[in-house]
């Protein structure tokens, strides 16, 4: 749906990269390699997004690093739109519906890094989690958001690095 509003696939990839997770940052060549696109196409969109104030750039050694401008008045709105575009709101709603005593839901893998790879991977941490419900949940979510979903149920907050979508 968002891809019909934002017709530049490169711009949409950049928005996903930087707005799904505020910690994501990258430089021109890294983005070109990650997206499999020319540096010129990436540079053009980076300039547009930076000029509009959506991205900020900083010099790191001899590279210019880009990241989302958290001070932009539309930052939170854009982040919400991107997360809805990816279906993360529906994922979270479905998980919390009947999963059990959920303490944390953490997005890991490609999507936590801002890469729209088609596979959303979640760590769900809690006590007495409903494994039977979880085994069917990914199918329900996949139909809703048209992306593959991998769910890991954990009882401890082991190495939960990623984007925390829910925490109680």
Secondary structure elements and pairings:
Layout: H1 2-5, H2 9-19, E1 25-27, H3 28-35, H4 39-51, E2 55-60, E3 63-68, H5 75-86, H6 88-98, E4 101-108, E5 119-127, H7 131-145, E6 148-154, E7 163-167
Parallel strand pairs: 5-6
Antiparallel strand pairs: 1-3, 2-3, 4-5, 4-7
Helix pairs in contact: 3-4, 6-7
Sketch the major β-sheet.
4 strands, mixed
Shape: elongated
What would you call the structural class? alpha+beta
Task: Assign a percent range to the helix content.
Answer: 40-55%
| Major sheet: arrangement of strands | 6-5-4-7
Fourth-tier CATH superfamily name of the largest domain: Beta Polymerase, domain 2
Domain module count = 2
Separation of the first and last Cα atoms: 31 Å
User: What's the SSE pattern?
Assistant: HHEHHEEHHEEHEE
Q: What is the name of the CATH class of the largest domain?
A: Alpha Beta
Which parts are unreliable, with pLDDT below 50 for 5 consecutive residues or more? none
InterPro entries: WH_DNA-bd_sf
Organism: Mongoliitalea lutea
Protein name: Transcriptional regulator
Short structural description:
With 168 residues, the chain is of the alpha+beta class. The protein contains seven helices and seven strands; from the N terminus they run ααβααββααββαββ. α7 links the parallel β5 and β6.
Give a written overview of the molecule.
Helices cover 44% and strands 26% of the residues. It is built from seven helices and seven strands. The strands form two sheets. A four-stranded mixed sheet has the order 6-5-4-7, with helices on one face. A three-stranded antiparallel sheet has the order 1-3-2. Strand 5 (119-127), helix 7 (131-145) and strand 6 form a beta-alpha-beta unit. It is elongated and about 50 Å long. The model has no long low-confidence stretch (mean pLDDT 88).
